[in-house]
Amino acid sequence: MSEERKSLNFIEQIIEEDLANGMSKNDLRFRFPPEPNGYLHIGHTKAIGISFGLGEHYNAPVNLRFDDTNPAKEEQEYVDAIKKDVAWLGYKWDKELFSSDYFQQLYDWAVQLIKDGKAYVDSQSSEAMAEQKGTPTQPGVDGPYRNRTIEENLDLFERMKNGEFDEGEHILRAKIDMQHPNMLMRDPIIYRIMKKSHHRTGNDWCIYPMYDWTHGESDYIEQISHSLCSLEFKPHRELYDWFLDQVVDPDKLRPKQREFARLNLSYTIMSKRKLLKLVEQNIVSGWDDPRMPTISGLRRRGYTPEALRKFVETVGVAKRDNVIDVSLLEFCIREDLNKRAPRVMAVLDPVKLVITNYPEDKVEWLDAENNQEDESAGFRKVPFSRELYIEKDDFKEEASNKFFRLKLGGEVRLKNAYIIKAESVVKDADGNIVEIHCTYSEDTSKKVKGTLHWVSIQHAVKAEVREYDRLFMDEAPDAHQDKDFMEFLNPNSLKIIEAFVEPSLKEAKVGDRFQFQRLGYFNVDDDASEEKLVFNKTVGLRDSWAKAKPKPQQPQQNNKPNNQQPKRKAINVIQQLGKKYTNYPEDKQAKVKAEILELAKEVSYDELEPLFNTAVKKVGTRIAATLVLGVLLENGQERNEEINAFLEKALEDKNELLVAEAKQIN
């Protein structure tokens, strides 16, 4: 939770009401209760952030409790991974606990339920029990074993515990009401036989408690004040309370379950079962594959804990489920890495450039700024020589006036170096350009429109770059009843290329993050070694998917001709978006900003320059203009007096949002 907290969300309101009604602040205790049957994913960051955020806000302890009641699916590997993820996000738990710590107490309470006539051993098949349970609109009926004697139930339950029966032969059920409107209250299962070794208790037990029985009682044992769950547990609250009614001491704190909307993300699978399928079928390299939405996968891809926490905070706490656009997550990591990632030069799709009037044996070490966002980042030296690599896309033999990069007869500035002019090209037998011949000028004060990144061939370091895209092509891959989610896999979610990077990156360590100028944000992968550099693409500088989304077709009405209005110019749409920018809440601002940045690709400098004269009071429009300017500069637009004057005025403004955007490109 940030220091500048927003208005109270509904969970905080509940807590404040409890405190106002006499609960002591010292009684506040929260917990994060993952089941160790898989790795945590981005959806869990919300649950983690809510519980630990409340702990930080109220200075209250937060337990990390593993609900480990299913030995068939749980492993120590998952326990270790979960602890690593929570710690990496920056949270500290008070106690590390396990539901298996309470197996004896849970068993003893179950025995007491039997003695009180509130539990019985059922010996039917699962099919028979399901049939007797009824439907949401049809009440259930009592089974043939519901009225066994207390003595018979105690005997059978003890023999279940002693391993005398096979799996599925008997279960223990709570005796509540088979006609209850809430199907979860129709004699739910408390214990089942599972003859499997547990990752902590080994073979001590062959019966294991069900989640609903374990969860609330564990909260009570730990004296959790507020048990916070996702919305799917709302129907379980009645059962949670019924189970507590059977064991609570009136002199002890009674936990209160409350539910919030889970985090759903577009183009993403959130089911641990389905994520496990991707791992088991080798669709991905493991739980930490950078395409996975797991916290370990995001960490390996280059995401920062600060970006994930900011994302969760921006999404907020809601009472209704909704789907968050994955572009908001990508926006948060761009914003964070823009401030912290050193700028370096790398060429991913190289073509050779020869400066014919530069001495063959000459090498210059030029100063390059590490990060204009961080004054303390300083400068580094980059080597410049006669033969360089540039990106193939940065050169065209012929191009329009809107192409600010290099073309025959045209001039551009090489980042941190000289101005060059393309004179001729060399082609292979198939007509492909293999060399661009240029001349350079030492007059760096000359005004040119484009700036390109480059790498000296003589000093270039080879690196493997893994360019990741979204794992699924569909916005909701598991929402189609007639199709399997695997049908929507993106066949191009991973592209491995050989790139060339500047020599300063020889010293890069695993996990180090960089901005490859004009290309995106990258980090050093776990597979990297002293012999081989491997980089993962974390995220591009811009949202490349916004344009790719198909626009919904508008049906024609009354069979009238479709007289479409001419498409509005991008710059006009941007002006409209900018007008109310400062009035929007933070999450809406993020979405509008992403839209402006995408539209900026269609704007020319000549269209933007008139906005430099926008009145001071129209802050939103000036912010929009600053965002567009940043895109143009990244795409090669050369700075001029008008740009410098506009930025200087923005930096002196009283509006913090405008100043922040101006700082990013100044």
Automatic annotation (TrEMBL):
Region (Disordered): 125-145, 545-568
Residue ranges of domain tRNA synthetases class I (E and Q) anti-codon binding in the record: 451-525
EC id: 6.1.1.18
SUPFAM superfamilies tied to this protein: Nucleotidylyl transferase (SSF52374), Ribosomal protein L25-like (SSF50715)
Top-level enzyme category: ligase
Segments crossing the lipid bilayer: none
PROSITE patterns registered for this protein in UniProt: AA_TRNA_LIGASE_I
Assigned keywords, A-Z: Aminoacyl-tRNA synthetase, ATP-binding, Cytoplasm, Ligase, Nucleotide-binding, Protein biosynthesis
InterPro entries the record matches: aa-tRNA-synth_I_CS (IPR001412), Gln-tRNA-synth (IPR004514), Gln/Glu-tRNA_Ligase (IPR050132), Glu/Gln-tRNA-synth_Ib_cat-dom (IPR020058), Glu/Gln-tRNA-synth_Ib_codon-bd (IPR020059), Glu_tRNA_lig_a-bdl (IPR020061), Rbsml_bL25/Gln-tRNA_synth_N (IPR020056), Ribosomal_bL25/Gln-tRNA_synth (IPR011035)
Highest taxon of source: Bacteria
Domain Glutamyl/glutaminyl-tRNA synthetase class Ib catalytic residues, every copy: 28-338
Domain Glutamyl/glutaminyl-tRNA synthetase class Ib anti-codon binding: 341-440
Cross-referenced Gene3D superfamilies: Glutamyl-trna Synthetase, Domain 2 (1.10.1160.10), Glutamyl-tRNA Synthetase, Domain 3 (3.90.800.10), HUPs (3.40.50.620), Ribosomal Protein L25, Chain P (2.40.240.10)
UniProt GO MF annotations: ligase activity
Alphabetical list of Pfam families matching this protein: tRNA-synt_1c, tRNA-synt_1c_C, tRNA-synt_1c_C2
Composition skew (Low complexity), residue ranges: 554-565
Family: Belongs to the class-I aminoacyl-tRNA synthetase family.
This protein's name: Glutamine--tRNA ligase
Lineage, broadest ranks: Bacteria, Pseudomonadati, Bacteroidota, Flavobacteriia, Flavobacteriales
